[in-house]
Amino acid sequence: MSPPPWTLPALRLEAPLLSGRIDAGVTLSTVTRLVASGTAVSKADLVVAAGLARTTVSAAVDELLARGVLQPDGIRPTSGRGRPADRLALSPHCGAVLLADVGARGAHLAVVDLRQQVLGHVHVDLDVREGPAAVLGTVEGELEKLRTRAGVPVRAVVIGLPGPVDGHLGVPVRPPIMPGWHAYPVAARLQETFACPVLLENDVNLRALGEARALPADQAPLLFVKVGTGIGGGLVTREGVLHHGADGAAGDIGHVRVRGAPDTVCVCGNIGCIEAVASVTAIGRRLGLAGADAASEVRELVARADPETMALVREAAALIGEVVAMLVHFYNPARVTLGGSVTSASDELLAGVRSVVYQRALPLATRNLVLATSVLGEHAGLGGASVLGIERVLSAEHIGLLGAATRR
Ligand SMILES: [Zn+2]
User: DSSP state, 16?
Assistant: First the structure.
């Protein structure tokens, strides 16, 4: 026999997690998250939902009750002859998460408890171009008021910014519309202020995550495309988690160049980026609006269906549709959500993008594709921030910290 013409190097094969990996932290985290999301509210439900042994679930529930993380929540009558089950709920006293969804010209700030109840919410006008010291000063002041009002220990802070971020280092990375923010220690500063873990995320990623978790699981993979002062994308995988890519830059679609786009110079220095030719800023510029209120003026013109503005919105939709069609081919999402001020003011952008995508993308990629506007609207970012923060607090690594303060 002649030797084989080529050989394979040793390739890594995926292996299932061993049951030995299910340690106490994983069990406590699983049980608490199932209760927190309303998936399972009794010991019997938890055994089924977690796929763990009855004794394991029972011990975990007893420990969480003793630590004040869970509390009894009445009786749930069962249908048929079954014994009524004791309902469980997260304790409202075991902690809260502070949320900041900072956009280019304003921020939504909120405090939620670990049961996902919104304890307070405020919107403030600000301008990210004023730099990190001024903007974060405002954000911290408002979050401090929300924390005081909540009256429970803050376990985590989640902040979203309208630009690329390095989530591991907790810093923005050369954000084109945020002068002075590059490498500014955003997470470290908030950690110092609030004495708890801080998660920094891109604003569109937060919207994508919020949207995906507000919809049934079969609506993922989900691609969120935000058309605002800039254009950005966020991707949630079929497993329901954010796809960050190698450096956190995944989904940063604003600087993709489209066929047939005008040679407009972009804030990033390149020519013909989708953001430079189809964002709300670009539409405003062509209407002769360039001031700080340009975006809200464009939104008003769209809401009034001003003919000149709508013609520009349709042009923008055709260009954005090209980018979305390409992404649909590449990623085959179950759902594409279009968000941002223009989509909430009119269906014209959605209709335009939809027609290009269905014309250009091949049937297999669009057979079951849903292309829609955001179900959470302007609060999608806070939704995603809430998910990230609560999941962090209830994670296997951190759940051990819960209950310590409530016992004091
Ligand atoms: Zn660009």
Answer: P
